TrEMBL record:
It comes from the Eukaryota. One of its GO terms (molecular function) is flavin adenine dinucleotide binding. It comes from Exophiala viscosa. The lineage of its organism: Eukaryota, Fungi, Dikarya, Ascomycota, Pezizomycotina. Belongs to the MSOX/MTOX family. This is FAD dependent oxidoreductase. Residues 21-434 form the FAD dependent oxidoreductase domain.
Length: 494
């Protein structure tokens, strides 16, 4: 395959080369593990978060997309069979990680009874009278890939039987809609389920360190400040403590912070906020909605601002999380170069007033869903306890960006998870390592992840970029929630 001239980079071969990875989220962790497994001896991960202490917990000050209670795993990718295959590869790897944990290979604070992936199914529901084309394509494509009974249609009695035989009967109508005389049409992905994200990242960090990866973490020690340059090349990074860290290759994997660190990405991706509501359930409801009885789910996922909902079983601590991505918001700020760029703002961002309130529009959709699908929550006095803005890095076409930065052959960017990369924590690093080593570059996914600029043809664009403060999705233009909005009895009457 011919690669753009800016990316004609000599493949990585020298196992002694120093490699700096900036960012210890999904992309950084996975890359570190796979490089170390391939024999690279001098890999260091930098992060501004003190992850050894905070253990990737949102409650302990972590605000990366990867640092979360849970994320959905699914193989269901409609017509995008290349991501379906990547998920099938990841499914094996998640089960392998669970097996390693069960054998006692765990960091302090985890036990062999912990799991990082629960195969409790992922249910995709619609409010339409028939299944949307995406779901039908998934059923067909998983069948053709050799998984004939993995996608089960909720209204098909023979599929309900299969789900029951597999111990996933609860996941066909987990909201008890039928009992209330309501519709529950959807597809249950039986390969799907729930990843325990914070625990999985902490386990990945442990794996990386066991393989010899070094870490430099902390708000000054580990924070990227600038690139080091010599003779026009980038030769490492400087951290906020003023230290220089020279390297042969630098990998930038800073999630939502990546576009501000690499403004070259302006026409490729942008950071946007998803809205999340967290409820602490009383013990009986937490048991009712635990992963033993309840799948991860999605509702009207591709139906615009009134849809884009997803959620999870209650955690072992009783927290239930519901997310909304029907509208993804931006936080445009003027940068040093005079351009406006969206930057993450979270509960933990210094010098910001926001405490992770979410837009009332997002909250209204979430509350309407709870009123329609989870009426026992408000009936039992449950309210929303906490909200969170969680930052995506969206490319214009929803594909990741895994490629060398034009004009900087020593720098590779691994980012633009576009709302779906967590599930690839155990395996995406192998693909990043392949790009670095120049292997299999003609594979469809690797081609999709190449550096690319936003095209002129509007019909190819999935996510609009860089609309700035004039754009309708700017947080500045959006009404944000107050504690009064978090009461569930008010349903959607905001
Ligand atoms: C709301 C939401 C829901 C999602 N749901 C799912 C899902 O259900 N299933 C799924 O598969 N995927 C999901 N995703 C996508 C997935 O979470 C992301 O694709 C993935 O976590 C991104 O990982 P990352 O490594 O790119 O970024 P991040 O996880 O954001 O990590 C970036 C790291 O870089 C560090 N960093 C930033 N700036 C600096 C600096 N200057 N110096 C040093 N370190 C720095 C940060 O501290 C952080 O640790 C979701 C994403 C969001 C936002």
């Amino acid at each position: 395959m011919s690669r753009p001239s800016t990316q004609a980079v000599p493949p990585l071969q020298d196992k002694d080369v120093k490699i700096n990875i900036v960012g210890a989220g999904v992309f950084g962790l996975s890359t570190a593990i796979h490089l170390a497994q391939r024999g690279y001896k001098r890999v260091t991960i930098f992060d501004k978060q003190p992850y050894h202490e905070s253990r990737y917990s949102y409650f302990n000050g972590c605000d990366a997309a990867s640092a979360d209670m849970n994320k959905i795993f699914r193989s269901a990718y409609g017509g995008q069979t290349e991501y379906q295959s990547l998920s099938i590869e990841a499914f094996e790897a998640w089960n392998q990680w669970n097996a390693e944990i069960a054998s006692g290979e765990v960091p302090p604070g985890m036990t062999k009874d912990d799991k990082v992936f629960v195969n409790n199914g992922n249910l995709s529901l619609t409010d339409k009278p028939s299944l949307p084309p995406f779901e039908l394509a998934t059923v067909r494509n998983m069948h053709e890939a050799g998984f004939p009974d993995s996608q089960l249609i909720t209204y098909d009695p023979s599929h309900v039987k299969i789900a029951t035989e597999r111990g996933l009967g609860f996941a066909i109508d987990p909201f008890d809609r039928q009992k209330r005389g309501q519709e529950y049409l959807g597809v249950l992905d039986t390969t799907g389920g729930t990843t325990l994200a914070d625990k999985a990242c902490f386990f990945a960090l442990y794996k990386a360190e066991r393989l010899g990866v070094r870490t430099v973490f902390g708000p000054t020690l580990g924070a990227f400040e600038s690139f080091l340059r010599a003779d026009g090349e980038i030769v490492g990074i400087r951290t906020l403590d003023g230290k220089s860290h020279y390297s042969g290759r630098t990998i930038i994997a800073c999630g939502g912070w990546t576009p501000t660190l690499l403004p070259e990405l302006d026409s490729v991706c942008e950071t946007t906020a998803g809205s999340v509501a967290i409820m602490k359930l009383p013990t009986d409801l937490a048991r009712r909605y635990s992963a033993k009885n309840f799948p991860s789910w999605m509702y009207k996922m591709r139906d615009g601002a009134e849809g884009g909902l997803y959620g999870f079983p209650a955690t072992s601590e009783g927290y239930m999380k519901i997310g909304y991505r029907g509208t993804k918001y931006t936080n445009p700020k003027v940068q040093k170069d005079g351009r406006e760029r969206s930057v993450p703002v979270t509960r933990y961002t210094e010098a910001e007033q926001i405490v992770d309130q979410i837009p009332t529009q997002a909250l209204a959709v979430i509350k309407q869903f709870i009123a329609d699908f989870l009426p026992d929550l408000p009936a039992n006095g449950v309210n929303i306890d906490m909200t969170r803005l969680c930052w995506y890095t969206d490319s214009w076409d929803n594909h990741f960006v895994i490629d060398h930065v034009p004009e900087h052959k020593n720098v590779l960017v691994a980012s633009a998870g576009s709302g779906h990369a967590f599930k690839y924590l155990p395996n995406i690093g192998a693909w990043v390592a392949d790009v670095l080593e120049g292997k299999g570059l003609d594979r469809q996914l690797i081609r999709s992840w190449q550096w690319r600029t936003r095209p002129d043809q509007e019909d190819r664009i999935i996510n609009e970029l860089m609309q700035g403060s004039a754009g309708r999705r700017s947080l500045k233009k959006t009404e944000l929630s107050t504690p009064r909005h978090l009461k569930l009895r008010q349903t959607a009457n905001l």
